[in-house]
Amino acid sequence: MSYAEVNGTRLWYDVAGEGPAVVLIHAGIVDSRMWDEHVGAFGERYQVARYDQRGFGLSSVPDAPYSDVADLAALLDELEIDRAAVVGTSRGGSIAINFTLTHPERAWALVPVATGLGGFRFNPYSEEQDARYEAAEEAGDWRAAAEVDLEVWAPMGAEGRVGELVYANAQAAETEHLAQPLDQPAIGRLAEIRVPTLVITGDRDVQGMTEIGDLLEREIERARRVHIAEADHLVPMRQPEPFARAVLGFLDEHRPSI
User: Fold this and answer.
1) Which domains does the chain show, CATH number per domain?
2) For residue 59, what are the CA distances in angstroms to 25, 26, 69, 215?
3) 34, 60, 159, 218: most buried by Cβ count inside 10 Å?
């Protein structure tokens, strides 16, 4: 078990491999175990780091406002990583984008996957799903809340690892509001991103995520787009081989010298 004491919290992390650094940032309904199938392949070519965000997995639960970007920067400092390719899914993709905007000198590539985007607002939940989720929250029934999340974000099914991780991290939603957004939302700053960028979306994800992918592809200079078939919101877990092939090929193309 490896932990970093940063910014008054305790983050679990794992590092494998050697070479230019790549950090994998998990989605907001699971934890860093979503990358289990990818650490080996990425670690054959790169130094790959992954971590649990505050409130997820084995990391500490937040009790005060905090910055995901500051946590990531402090973790990289702790690991003595000056620059990294930032690869993030959903909430993790939003963190990757915000980190690249805040610390452009520290990112050598950006890969947002089925990503959120600061300032882009939509609600993929129906009124009935919203009502069930709110009732589950009020009752402290996090398994019931997770079942609503799974209906929306994992329409391909909750069997196996997907359901296990979503249920295990459902209570993280209780403190996610403590994560502070950028002062200037990313949606109006995408043209500032100058690093090589690969935008990945899944064909069975909610419509809003496809719209964000369209926006990133249009606004980020020379951004490349990959749309992966038979993948809902958790693209790396649903289609690990096409995902790894696309990302590693892109990173290899832009690999910096150490």
Assistant:
1) 2-122+183-254 (3.40.50.1820)
2) 13, 13, 16, 32
3) 34
Cβ count within 10 A of residue 219: 15
d(CA 255, CA 258): 9
Give the SS3 label for residue 109: strand
Q: Where are the alpha helices (DSSP H) in the chain?
A: 36-43, 68-78, 91-102, 127-139, 142-153, 161-168, 207-219, 235-238, 240-254
And the tokens for 254?
């832009």
